[in-house]
UniProtKB/TrEMBL annotation:
Origin organism lineage: Bacteria, Bacillati, Actinomycetota, Actinomycetes, Micromonosporales
E.C. code: 3.7.1.2
Single annotated GO MF: fumarylacetoacetase activity
The protein's name in its UniProt record: fumarylacetoacetase
Organism encoding this protein: Actinoplanes teichomyceticus
Top-tier EC class: hydrolase
Domain Fumarylacetoacetase N-terminal residue range list: 15-102
Residues involved in substrate binding: 112, 126, 224, 228, 329
Keywords: Calcium, Hydrolase, Magnesium, Metal-binding, Phenylalanine catabolism, Tyrosine catabolism
Amino acid sequence: MTWLDLPADTGFGPANLPYGVFCPAGGRPRTGVAIGDHVLDLAGLTGDPVHATGSLNAFMAQGPDAWAALRSMITTWLTDPAHRERVEPHLLPRDAVTMRLPIEVADYVDFYSSADHAENLGRMFRPGSPPLTPNWKHLPIGYHGRAGTVRLSGTPVRRPHGQRKAPPDPAPVFGPSLRLDIEAEVGFVVGVPSRLGTPVPARDFPSYVFGVCLVNDWSARDLQAWEYVPLGPFLGKSFLTSVSPWVVPLAALSAARVEPPARDEPLLDYLADGDQPWGLDLTLEVRLNGAVVSRPPFARMYWTAAQQLAHMTVNGASLRTGDLYASGTVSGPEREQRGSLIELSWNGQEPLTLPDGTTRSFLEDGDEVTITATAPGADGSRIGFGEVVGRVQAS
């Protein structure tokens, strides 16, 4: 319960309290918490300079005890009417502020953890062979992306240029990507750094990871197909990664935790998570030019964020505050649950038909993609993650 008058369908109720960075009209960037249609200005309310840095990094670096203490205080401020007079002047309409990138991104890693997605791509590109590579069910496959091109939702998606080579062509050509795609993903934000040479066990996931955001890891499939052998994604992925402005704290997701899918292969000890599973029951929604084209289920992800963190550091690689790692494309077993256009159109063989009668295999200039997600909240509500939006521009 809260003394605020909240919209009935808000995803930003008191069970959520996601963090973001915003600029009030004529003001400097500061930390805020979304509640209903408002933003609670933490810098103004608390006077703590950690909330006036223009980034969540300084606060996230304080660790889980500080995260829990502030969340408890915010909950009290917004639910106990005795605090209303003090708090209300620091509640600003969300539509009157400008959102900023919530974190200073240190490193970026993208995983490949949906068996449905990986099997779909395997069937497309390796017909007659097992759809999954031999290592897929033994370790979370990932690659290091480019932190400098992680940008806030709403940043224009300029169509990238690069080399591409279609099978009949004798040599590669240079030009704009003709197969620009989306990847509907979930991102995890590291708050606490780790020491070089010291792996982070899967059980310590909530001691290091601050929260969750939405990610669209745009992909130029034709550039990627030509360049990725033998070292993997490069220019076909590095041109832009879009993230949502709100970071939902792990503490808000207790009711969303579920068992991950049954594992087909025995797990090595450092990946074992039977005592503390971190599957998450999130439902994503992908819209193309306003039309829903997919609802990917995150609960089916074979590898969890805790296992990804353990694998990412098992060789001694260190974490930094502001590290971002993403789940990889989220897909389900049904066509309407696929989280990328290459799957939805089956590599162009089965184009999508949109409500206006037009068809799409890959993105055209002017297309707009919006990804949203919800999860069950501890109070029976649905927690919202905001949205990550991007519109394609001609290069």
